[in-house]
Amino acid sequence: MEASKQGERRLMVMSHWGLFASFGLAFALSGFAEANLWLGLTGFALFGVGFAVHVLVNMLHDTGFTQGEVALGFVVYILGLLAFGGSWLALPHLQSANVAIGLIGFGGLFVGFIAYMAYHHGVRGSIEMFDRVRLNDPVIAREAIEAASQARKLRRASAK
Q1: What's the gap between Cα 9 and its chain centre?
Q2: Dihedral sign for Cα atoms in the order 135, 140, 146, 152
Q3: Residues 83, 145: contact at Cβ < 8 Å?
Q4: In the chain, what is the straight-line distance between the N-terminal and C-terminal CA atoms, in Å?
């Protein structure tokens, strides 16, 4: 991808995440602070919208997620999940609305991720991406990479 297109994509990604992540975090934290289910779930819904917009930006620029974006997404999700789980264990009298916000919110984001993987890579392709036992065999790994590349080309050709 040429430098100007890459810069344009980066600007789009950063600007939409600046909007959806900041408001999503504000709503989610307010929901947890006030034990308000709808306020907290609105924050998680904004995180989901941010992810969907990021997917649209990737489709618009005919790219995928960069390794840095994937790593950042996993780290932020895991840290949030650990913070929620830790507070649930450390605070025995955590209100049921706060538990519901965390379970529904993180569960919804996980379901959204699985739906994206199934749509973008197909169910079999998604499972094969995580099948490390088979990917340790160089012949099978090469075949899996070639099959994924061909499937991606077919999807892009059919989308145009």
Answers
A1: 17
A2: negative
A3: no
A4: 18
